[in-house]
Amino acid sequence: MRRGRRGALAGLLLGLALASSARAEIAELRIGRQLGLGYLQLYVMQEQQLVEKHARAAGLALRTRYLPLGSPAVLNEQLLSGNIELASAGPSPFVLLWDKTRGKARLVSALGNQPILLNTNKPAIRTLTDFTDQDRIAVPGLKTSQHAILLGLAAEKLYGKWDHFDPIQVSLAHPDAMAALLSRKLEVTAHFATIPFQDQELEQPGIHTVVSSFDITEGPSLTTAVWALDTFRTDNPKVYRAVLDAIAEATAFIKANRGEAGRIFIKVENSNLTAAFVDKILANPKVEFSTVPVKLGLFADYMRRTGLVRSPGTWQDMVFPELAAAPGS
Question: I need a surface site. Which of 30, 116, 200, 203 has the fewest CB within 10 A?
């Protein structure tokens, strides 16, 4: 009888352990992202339910929600508050969070390296040195946005001081900045834009490009990425793996099915852009979708030099182990 009771107790404990293990992985994954073609993998993942697909293969029933949040600061706040598990934006808000959390937030994956173009409506502005104190450059965020940091990097090279362009920068969301640039009625004379906004601007007469981010960083550099807190990875190893596999599959899909990927973006975003226009953007050989973080360390080093962050570390220290072996920088 004692052996029977012990057996029953062991069975009960095993059952409780299995139930606890089943509960350990989350049933709903929330991904906060910014908007635009630079996040194309996430649009493909949403439409094709790729995270759910890979979670099912691991024996999990998972619901995934994609939450469009326009501000990187809000994305980081939502991540720290536990309202989302993954955040997606440019490298600089990630570096800020990595520093703030003392390394408890790390990069899950890069998404791509697309050129960011500084467009202007003034014929006289041909180079960065042509800007005067009468001009205004629209960026999505002052000092800490990737666009502001790119201007800082350029200012260091041209003038030996990173804050040269700070007085003429104004903070505007990309749609508002594009409207201001094209209207020519407001103070904005230039916009540091991302795809597809920069391409829409260049379709209009009298708009030309002053400089590309690739000129400033001397080649391709990280534009968009996905990050998470380390507790998400340790508490949900199967979900984490499903996310990695989904991003990899979406990246491969975009490369093999460019037109269909563009149509997915238009559908999910409910965009009024034409399929031909989106395909033209995606056909640009400089528009690359990749999971490898390129020149993440360049942005982090600049942010240390200028006092935006203090934590030391290489780019490998800033990413999860699965990504650290990639040929990044």
Answer: 203
Let me know if residue 19 belongs to a domain.
Answer: no
Note the Cα 180 to chain centre separation in Å.
25
**What is the rounded distance in angstroms from the CA atom of residue 147 to the CA atom of residue 137?**
10
Q: Is the distance from CB of 240 to CB of 58 less than 8 angstroms?
A: no
106 CB burial (10 A radius; 0-12, 13-18, 19+):
buried
263 occurs within a structural domain: yes
With the CA atoms of 157, 162, 164 and 165 taken in that order, what torsion angle do they form, in degrees rounded to the nearest 10?
100
Among all chains, which residue has been given the structure tokens 């994956």?
109
The vertex-99 CA angle with 240 and 81, nearest 5°, equals 55
Reported confidence tier of residue 91, pLDDT bands at 50, 70, 90 = very high
Establish if 190 belongs to a structural domain.
yes
Phi, psi at residue 143, to the nearest 5°? 65, -50
pLDDT greater than 80 at residue 8: no
**Amino acid letter at 220?**
P
**Domain CATH number, residue 295:** 3.40.190.10
For residue 242, give its domain range: 27-114+223-324
Find, among 30, 63, 51, the residue nearest to 242 by Cα. 51
132 & 88 share domain: no
Note whether 108 and 233 are same-domain residues. yes
User: How would residue 22 be classed by pLDDT, with cut points 50, 70 and 90?
Assistant: very low
**Burial status of residue 312 (CB atoms within 10 A of its CB: 0-12, 13-18, 19 or more):** exposed
Q: Is the peptide bond before 115 cis (omega within 30 degrees of 0)?
A: no
Domains held by the chain: number: 2
Q: What is the pLDDT of residue 120?
A: 98
Bond before 196 cis per omega within 30 degrees: yes
Would the pLDDT of 11 be above 90? no
Based on the fold, state whether residues 83 and 134 are members of the same structural domain: no
